[in-house]
Write a structure and sequence with these properties.
Blueprint: H1 4-15, H2 24-32, E1 37-40, H3 47-57, E2 61-65, H4 69-80, E3 89-92, H5 98-109, E4 115-118, H6 120-124, H7 129-134, E5 137-142, H8 162-169, E6 174-178, H9 183-193, E7 199-202, E8 210-216, H10 221-230, E9 236-240, H11 244-256, E10 261-264, H12 270-281, E11 287-290, E12 303-308, H13 315-322, E13 332-338, H14 340-349, H15 355-373, H16 378-385, H17 399-402, E14 407-409, H18 411-423, H19 430-437, H20 443-447, H21 464-476, E15 480-483, E16 489-492, H22 494-501, E17 507-509, H23 516-520, H24 526-529, H25 533-550, H26 554-557, H27 560-569, H28 574-577, H29 585-605, H30 624-634, H31 639-645, H32 650-662, H33 670-676, H34 679-691, H35 697-704, H36 710-725
Parallel strand pairs: 1-6, 1-7, 2-4, 2-5, 3-4, 5-6, 8-13, 9-11, 9-12, 10-11, 12-13
Antiparallel strand pairs: 14-17, 15-16
């Protein structure tokens, strides 16, 4: 057993700290005593020190397995700064030339090196095993250990090979470390590393300084992000996107709006990624726009905001990425933009994966959706997901606690839900239970003969949101639990059984409404979002007059979202008007003159100072895809082929084409329409839009009936807008 003074002396000598943080000392003692350890510690909790200090104290070299080659240099540089000897830490990976690799091996065999960072691919490579067997290994540290588990948010097949490789090299103590792991992932990690008896060290996941907020993802998401960053000048932040293309586009838009930003993703050259990382650490840039490739191991304590442009694939990923904010204990704002459409896209991406991976992926997405849509304290939800209880009623630092939603008494609904779970013998998940409650005759319900249950359809006359809220909060409050091992089926807990015997009050908050119909229909309640409601009404009146004179529906001239943006940013010239969402060059010139004159008069009469920072500048590159689409349509290329060539799905292509025609560019897709839709169908849909006062898609589908698909309606709507508005 090491004396405490010896440990603290080494801590002070190498790291300059007088005391250990949280459970660091106990973890380090365990490793020094040659025992296996499993460490679950949030980002910013000091995980790295738990293996770095014992590595410096023990004889031999610690092998540190890290998933990202790009970040190893950062870790090695940190250790080298603690010593006068550069050889104290090295990395081995494919970026080293032969001379550099030989120097690394020489330092290790001479006993100079205390830490060797390797990727799992390097560790498991057959050619490297003879050298590893020559080393005197003090212990193995498996960083980002959640990568081992299929249930983890960043599963890596190579991590599954670590334990067999360790057996082939030579056994030494193993320490597994992760910033995020549910019970399922924790068990999986220990099992796959062959350390079932490892002592577990688990720190609290609560980060009180982090503010959590989920916002609906509207068409103006880029404007919202720019407005947020401009309101936090000079602050460091990270924006996460799921696709490389979105990363590059958004970074360009931020730069065009005088924000010091740069993109970062795995498809970039290693030297560029490294330079970008250094620029961020040295504060030459303020904002990194990145895929999840960025962040692991980055030691920047003063990241003040983390924005998720796209909702992540799992709550584990979300928690780890938000954990990069406020690591110094200072302010950290975590903003996520959420739309159900994004979830549907993520589900589509899973279709080519094995069925077992699809099932896991869908369950993880369900948890993410529950978090985003819930009106309960976000801190409570996150901590519950990681098996930690948070007993405060109001954390005071999330959107749901600062803006509480409507609360309703749901004692009767909870009783019915528990009775249903019992009736179906605790064998089904929450989606199935919700289908039963709402009286949906699904194939599975009919096959199970559950449509004859007395409680089938008990909630069909109620708002589904209420029942969904009760279900989710019943799990959160411990009346029900999900059996993760068994596809998330619902089980009644002892508290649930006690409630059935003696019901008590059960008050729930109704989940937030992220209905796609509200967000994505071209016509929206613009006045509600406009900065200047008086101007909005004046613009609306002008549009009505023009609509009557030109005998066109109002939305053909400008959409509500465009009027809302005009009443927010006050464009006074045709050029400025072209920066308004949904307004292209053609539409601005065709209809814009009177609108600009009205806005100019309104600003002069009311002495309004226009907000320059809100006039979002677009970038040329953003229109490359649109130009490509227009050129392909001019060449009569089939739309599905255009989508495939540009690497987007058909829905995304229709989004782009809609944006093109709504902004005033005329295109002709008749050649494609005639191939895929009957003429009489085209005529009927076209006639509907001629007579309708709105171009709302959902309303059109409901009015036209089941004989028409959503794709057919969207395609003919594109033709109608192009024919009449441009």
């Amino acid at each position: 057993m090491r004396e405490r003074s010896e440990l603290t002396n080494h801590l002070k000598h190498y790291f300059g700290f007088d005391t250990f943080k949280g459970g660091q000392e106990a973890i380090i003692r365990s490793l020094l005593d040659g025992k296996d350890a499993f460490v679950l510690m949030p980002t910013g909790g000091g995980k790295s020190l738990c293996y770095q200090l014992p590595a410096l104290m023990l004889e031999g070299t610690a092998i540190v397995v890290s998933p990202l080659i790009a970040l190893m240099k950062n870790q090695v540089d940190v250790i080298r700064n603690l010593s006068e000897e550069d050889g104290i830490a090295h990395f081995m990976n494919s970026t080293l030339n032969k001379v550099a690799l030989e120097q690394v091996k020489a330092d290790i065999l001479e006993g100079k090196t205390k830490m060797l960072y390797v990727a799992p691919e390097t560790l498991t490579k057959e050619d490297n095993l003879p050298f590893f067997r020559q080393m005197k290994i003090s212990f193995y540290a498996i960083d980002e250990a959640h990568c081992i588990s299929e249930w983890g948010h960043d599963f890596r097949v190579e991590y599954r090979k670590i334990r067999p490789t360790i057996d082939a090299i030579g056994r030494a103590p193993i320490i597994a470390l992760t910033a995020t792991a549910t019970d399922k992932v924790r068990i999986d990690i220990k099992k796959n590393l062959g350390i079932p008896d490892a002592y577990e060290y688990k720190s609290s996941f609560n980060r009180p300084n982090l503010y959590y907020e989920v916002r609906p993802k509207t068409r103006d998401v880029e404007r919202d992000i720019i407005r947020f960053i401009k309101s936090h000048p000079g602050k460091s932040g990270i924006i996460y996107c799921l696709s490389r293309k979105r990363v590059e586009t958004l970074a360009e838009i931020l730069c065009a709006n005088d924000i010091k930003a740069a993109p970062y993703h795995a498809g970039m050259e290693a030297a560029v990624r490294s330079a970008t990382q250094d620029d961020f650490l040295m504060e030459r840039i303020d904002v990194i726009v990145a895929t999840i490739a960025f962040g692991m191991g980055i030691d920047k304590p003063d990241v003040r905001f983390v924005i998720h442009y796209d909702i992540p694939k799992s709550l584990e990923g979300y928690y780890q990425e938000t954990g990069r904010a406020g690591r110094d204990g200072g302010e950290g704002k975590c903003i996520a933009f959420y739309s159900q459409k994004d979830l549907q896209k993520l589900e589509k991406f899973m279709e080519d994966k094995p069925l077992s991976e699809q099932d896991i992926g869908r369950q993880l997405l369900k948890e993410t959706a529950s978090y985003a849509e819930s009106s309960v304290c976000r801190r409570k939800l996150l901590l519950h997901y990681f098996g930690e209880e948070y007993n405060e009623e109001n954390c005071g630092n999330c959107d749901n606690c600062l803006n509480p939603q409507k609360r309703v008494e749901a004692k009767q609904q909870l009783a019915h839900i528990l009775e249903i779970v019992l009736a179906i013998k605790e064998n089904f998940d929450e989606d199935y239970v919700l289908d039963l409650i709402m009286g949906r005759d699904t194939d599975e319900i009919i096959a199970q003969k559950h449509d004859v249950l007395e409680l089938f359809g008990i909630g069909e006359d109620d708002d589904e949101k209420i029942w969904q809220s009760v279900l989710r909060q019943a799990v959160l409050m411990g009346y029900l639990e999900k059996d993760i091992e068994n596809s998330g089926v619902l089980k009644i807990t002892p508290i649930g059984y006690a409630f059935l015997k003696k019901p008590v009050s059960f008050v729930v908050t109704v989940d937030n409404d992220f209905d796609e119909e509200e967000k994505d229909s071209p016509i929206q309640s613009g006045a509600n979002g406009a900065v200047d409601p008086v101007l909005y009404q004046m613009l609306n009146d002008l549009r009505k007059r023009m609509s009557k004179d030109l005998e066109l529906p109002p939305y053909i001239i400008f959409q509500d979202t465009s009027l809302e943006a005009m009443a927010t940013t006050y464009p006074e010239t045709i050029e400025e008007l072209q920066n308004i969402p949904g307004v292209g060059v053609g539409k601005a010139k065709k209809y814009g003159k009177e609108f600009c004159e009205l806005i100019r008069r309104h600003c002069e009469e009311n002495e309004i100072e226009r907000p320059d920072d809100l006039r979002i500048r677009t970038v040329a590159n953003k229109s490359k895809l649109k130009v490509s689409i227009i050129q392909s349509i001019d060449r009569l290329v089939a739309l599905d082929d255009i989508a495939e060539v540009n690497g987007i799905d058909f829905d995304e292509l229709l989004d782009e084409i809609e944006a093109i025609v709504y902004s005033g560019t005329k295109i002709n897709i008749d050649y494609f329409l005639r191939e895929v839709i009957d003429d009489d169908k085209i005529d009927e849909i076209y006639e509907y839009f001629q007579e309708s006062e709105t171009d709302d898609l959902n309303e059109a589908i409901e009015e036209l009936g089941d004989d028409f698909t959503e794709e057919e309606v969207r395609l003919v709507r594109i033709k109608f807008i192009s024919d009449n508005a441009n």
